[in-house]
Specification:
The structure holds three protein chains of three kinds. Chain B is of the alpha+beta class. Chain B has twelve helices and 25 strands. Classes of the chains: A alpha+beta, B alpha+beta, C alpha/beta. Chains in contact: A-C, B-C. The interface between A and C is medium-sized, with 28 and 29 residues. Strand 25 of chain B pairs antiparallel with strand 12 of chain C, so a sheet runs across the interface.
Chain lengths: 140, 481, 421
């Protein structure tokens, strides 16, 4: 009888430990707009479960990706020939994986655009196969 | 042996003293040149001092300081017109804030009269306040009407330009490394650009005059650098400070922490007097700034510290002899113009006379009949009338582009400052000649533009443009081709 | 002398938005004078995004926002623009004297003038950092221009003083450009920048942030070699014994912006304390008849969207005044910031019959949570607004309906409700 109880208690402890390991919370600040809401994200086994503290759906979406697959917009410059200035500011059309930003910047160091360019013109299509275009931020 | 240069006189040091001497030499039928180790003239003590043309009452009677100060003060009245120098003859006040100090004023008055200084008088508190309403702690003051404020780097450049237009040469980025003597007389000056054959050498090397003298075998004096720090204010602060030159009562080693408004309208406070060993250290220190502020507060309790725009420090070249070291040394052919601390700026043209007189004792000097002592009037856009501005722009459209908005300096003036004789090659060189970068934004707006203009005009890459000395490059290229 | 309905000094977002608004409100001859080689002002060097969420309902980069403003005015024959042109003076009679290489020196007459000159950066000399004066000390904005527009880096190993947005943005920018940002140093116990910039510019790049620290000394004579940093006490004085050195070849200063009002002061415009910009009413009129001011020259903004909002107000009323359609201001009432609100614009309210809706732009003096903003006239509370968070670095706006302004008769105060203990 006692050994059965012991097994049940052990099983329960094992189960509880697993549950605790599976669930974790992360606190982060939203960067989608200047409000910077502080949000708490609950994860289970590294997967997003829920978020509190956001003031809008954009924030919730940001929280979800930030803890599992953080992404960032990239703004930088590329060289340009024949423009008013030697540099053209460019921006990614969407967020890129945070871990690949440095690679994208390295790639763009070797790109030279040709004037004239219009705001929105694609300077690099599908950069590094990440499915995101890099476009001109302005006319030049 | 092929020499880099062959000349009659080499002047070592391109500060206000060296350039004044070169100008004086250029009046005579002889070959002369000046070597300066930095990329520009006036980079040492000449660019960091109180800018005062002292009346001459401080200096010990009979000293070189006294004689050259009083004579120099007179000479500047003439030079102002000939060389278009920026000078404001404001007169100066030495302020006493208590009874003991008022007694000291009497002693200064006596000495001043003995030194031949005209117009000295002791003013009452009311008379002081009538001149300077913010000197609320004043009990009395010594008034010296012949004192003035000058633009020292402008003088050094003008002296150099006057010399150059009369055949002298100014060689920058040229440091003296040693001397060669023949029969005990210096005949060759070794420099980083090559050997110069000469008959005479004049040592006007500022804080390094001791090292230069020793290289020649003259160990008759030492030079200790004594640092003086300054805080400079925005022009808008002048009404709450002073209009002219205000000294406290002097101490044994220093004229004290003064408050003075420059020829361009910026008021400064300083200097303190801090002994140090390092001849290359012109850093401003927290303790030094506290000292200057405390000292100035004795004269004007409410300092507008929020209006400070820059701080800087200079090194006085203090000789252990207690006076200027002027004239021929024990080394044949080697002359000194050393230990020039205050009243060095005021004394410079007179020092030049003394040194050249000393050379005249050894070499027959014949005056040039065609010596041109006049420089054309400077084109300063922000001082022009509307029609003068229009004419300047019609002649050179670059006078229509304002680069330094704080001081209203145009691209035309900057380009001219680069290409004129003894022209600017560095950002600070442009700054000293045109005022671009001396305003309240301290080059935040014009700095990048000035750098690009220098690169374009000197046909060098932007990343090679220096701020001041070698090793002071400002920018790095983003992309390596 | 050419006569314009509206002459606008400064062609950045302020001037451009004012020009478009003046046009939409019937002005027929508008001139925008800009000193840089192109329109757009400081936005052209702010290549990062975060602009336009309010104003264009879209997230844009600085140049993108500038482009939108330029597009709105570029084909309007009523709007003339001059670039590479520096205004030298504005007279109280609304004569504007300017200069450029092609026209030389010239003066134009405006029926109204709008001042939108923006601001400049606080310098090392203003904060009196000890040391020599080596190459390598730059204000963050000046460095930003060289990096983003001209193609030059200020250095390779960077320390940044000031954790405001400009400093944080440059921390990221220099890191992306391959430089090593050694540290960001901030004298306050809190960062002055937006949270999103803390995350994207510091945390993302593992850049250490030293709060309650200042730079005591710059090392190096010809080029920066390092800085000496120390912790500061609650009075922001360095604590002896806490000094340590950080190696670097560049120091970027992001220590504050100052509205550029040299032209305003020379014209006789009254400058308000606290903001260091012209004292204005809700129409952005200054004390000089026909002279308006808007944007960073009035008070430093953190969102360019509000600069455009303000400039649109100035543009509208300047246009109406130029067409003779504006009644002169009658009753005015002063607006005083109190109790935790450090600045408030407008500083004066013009009160026509029946009142007029007014938007106040304010800054808190210190960070705080769960506060209530109150607009009072005497003891009477006219408007209340609960705010979950206030920070000195983030401008607060408050709309007061016309009905409430109609109740104003005496000095109005704007402040935070004292906390219940």
């Amino acid at each position: 009888m006692l050994s059965n109880l012991q097994t049940i208690v052990d099983k329960f402890i094992k189960y509880a430990k697993k549950e605790i390991e599976k669930m974790e919370t992360k606190v982060l600040n939203c960067i989608m707009c200047p409000m910077g809401c502080e949000m708490t994200v609950t994860l289970e086994n590294g997967k997003f479960v829920s978020v509190t503290g956001n003031s809008c759906p954009r924030g919730a979406r940001y929280a979800e990706t930030e803890v599992t697959d953080p992404r960032r917009m990239l703004t930088t410059t590329v060289r340009i020939r024949g423009g008013l200035l030697p540099l053209l500011p460019v921006v990614s059309v969407e967020v890129l994986p945070k871990g690949r930003i440095a690679d994208c910047v390295a790639y763009l160091r070797n790109i030279t655009a040709e004037a004239p360019v219009k705001a929105g013109d694609v300077i690099v299509h599908d950069i590094l196969g990440l499915g995101v275009d890099i476009v001109a931020s302005r006319n030049m | 042996m092929k020499f880099f240069k062959e000349t009659d006189v080499v002047v070592i040091g391109g500060g206000i003293v060296g350039t004044a001497i070169l100008r004086e030499l250029s009046k005579y039928e002889l070959k002369c040149l000046l070597v300066e180790k930095e990329p520009d003239v006036a980079v040492g003590t000449t660019k960091a001092n109180s800018a005062v043309l002292h009346a001459g009452f401080d200096a010990p009677t009979g000293s070189w300081k006294q004689k050259t100060n009083v004579r120099g003060n007179v000479l500047y009245h003439q030079l102002q017109d000939e060389l278009d120098l920026d000078i404001k003859w404001t007169g100066s006040l030495v302020v006493a804030t208590n009874e003991e100090e008022t007694q000291k004023l009497e002693a200064l008055l006596e000495r001043g009269r003995a030194n031949g200084v005209p117009g000295l008088e002791i003013l009452s508190r009311e008379e002081v306040l009538a001149k300077e309403p913010n000197l609320t702690t004043a009990k009395a003051a010594l008034w010296a009407p012949t004192a003035g404020v000058v633009w020292p780097f402008g003088c050094a450049v003008a002296f150099a330009q006057c010399a150059v237009q009369n055949g002298a040469e100014v060689i920058r980025d040229c440091a003296v490394t040693g001397f060669v003597k023949e029969d005990g007389a210096v005949t060759i000056v070794n420099t980083t650009k090559g050997a110069i054959r000469t008959k005479y050498v004049i040592n006007a090397a500022g804080v390094y005059a001791e090292e230069i003298a020793r290289l020649a075998g003259d160990e008759s004096f030492t030079i200790s650098p004594r640092k003086g720090e300054y805080i400079l204010f925005d022009k808008t602060a002048a009404p709450s400070l002073v209009w002219g030159i205000v000294f406290p009562c002097p101490t044994e080693i220093s004229k004290g922490i003064l408050i003075c408004t420059t020829t361009h309208g910026n008021t400064f406070i300083g200097p303190n007097a801090q002994e140090q060993d390092n001849k290359d250290d012109t850093s401003v220190t927290p303790a030094g700034m506290d000292e200057i502020i405390a000292g100035a507060r004795k004269l004007i309790p409410n300092l507008p510290l929020g209006a400070s725009i820059t701080e800087f420090a200079g090194l006085r070249a203090v000789s252990d002899t207690g006076d200027f070291v002027l004239g021929v040394s024990k080394v044949a052919g080697f002359f000194n113009a050393a230990g020039i601390q205050s009243p060095g700026v005021a004394a410079a043209p007179a020092i030049a006379e003394v040194v050249v007189e000393a050379i005249a004792q050894e070499m027959y000097l014949r005056k040039k009949s065609n010596w041109n002592g006049r420089l054309p009037k400077k084109a300063v856009f922000n001082r022009m009338t509307a029609s003068e501005k229009q004419k300047a722009i019609a002649k050179n459209r670059l006078y229509g582009r304002v680069i330094c908005r704080c001081e209203t300096v145009t691209e035309g003036e900057i380009v001219d400052a680069i290409h004129e004789p003894v022209g600017a090659r560095t950002v600070d060189g442009v700054k000293r000649r045109t005022r671009a970068g001396m305003g309240r934004c301290q080059g935040g707006f014009c700095g990048p533009r000035v750098t690009q203009i220098i690169a374009r005009e000197l046909e060098i890459p932007v990343e090679a443009v220096l701020k001041e000395r070698q090793g002071s490059e400002l920018y790095f290229k983003k992309f390596q081709e | 002398m050419k006569l314009y309905d509206v002459v606008i000094v400064g062609g950045g977002p302020g001037g451009l938005s004012a020009a478009y608004s003046a046009y939409r409100n019937g002005a027929k001859k508008i001139l925008v004078i800009e000193r840089d080689r192109e329109l757009g002002g400081i936005l052209q060097q702010c290549i990062h995004n975060g602009f336009g969420l309010h104003h264009f309902k879209e997230e844009l980069t600085g140049p993108g926002y500038a482009g939108r403003c330029i597009d709105l005015i570029k084909d309007k024959t009523e709007i003339e623009t001059l670039t590479d042109t520096m205004v030298l003076s504005v007279s109280k009679d609304k004569q504007v004297t300017a200069v450029n290489p092609d026209k030389g020196l010239f003066t134009v007459q405006g029926k109204t003038v709008i001042l939108t000159m923006g601001c400049r950066e606080r310098t090392r000399g203003a904060i009196r950092t000890a040391g020599e004066r080596p190459a390598g000390v730059f204000t963050a904005g000046a460095a930003q221009r060289m990096v983003n527009m001209e193609g030059y880096l200020p250095g390779k190993k960077i320390v940044i003083l000031g954790s405001g947005d400009i400093g944080l943005i440059m921390a990221r920018r220099m890191s992306l450009e391959g430089c090593k940002v050694q540290a960001v140093c901030e004298i306050c116990p809190y960062s002055n920048g937006l949270t999103r910039n803390m995350v994207q510019c510091l945390y993302d790049f593992d850049i250490p942030l030293y709060l309650s620290h200042t730079i005591l000394k710059i090392k190096g004579r010809d080029r920066v070699e390092g800085v000496t940093i120390a912790k500061v006490d609650e009075k922001m004085r360095p604590i002896p014994g806490t000094e340590f050195d950080i190696e670097c070849d560049t120091l970027l200063l992001s220590v504050g912006l100052i509205p550029e009002n040299e032209l305003s002061m020379a014209a006789g415009v009254e400058i308000a304390p606290f903001t260091n910009g012209p004292k204005v009413n809700q129409r952005r009129q200054t004390n000089l008849p026909g002279v308006y001011a808007a944007g960073n020259v009035v008070h430093v903004h953190d969102l360019v969207d509000f600069v455009s909002d303000e400039a649109e107000i100035a543009g509208k009323f300047a246009a109406l005044e130029a067409q003779g359609k504006l009644a002169p201001t009658v009753d005015t009432v002063a607006v005083m910031p109190v109790n935790g609100i450090r600045t408030c614009v407008p500083q004066v309210l013009h009160l026509p019959e029946g009142g007029e809706p007014v938007r106040l732009f304010m800054r808190a003096g210190a960070p705080d949570l769960k506060v209530t903003l109150e607009v009072k006239c005497g003891d009477e509370v006219l408007v209340k607004k609960k705010l979950p968070v206030v920070k000195p670095s983030e401008m607060i706006t408050l709309d007061i309906p016309a009905a409430k302004t109609a109740l104003m008769h005496d000095a109005v105060t704007v402040g935070l409700q004292p906390k219940q203990v």
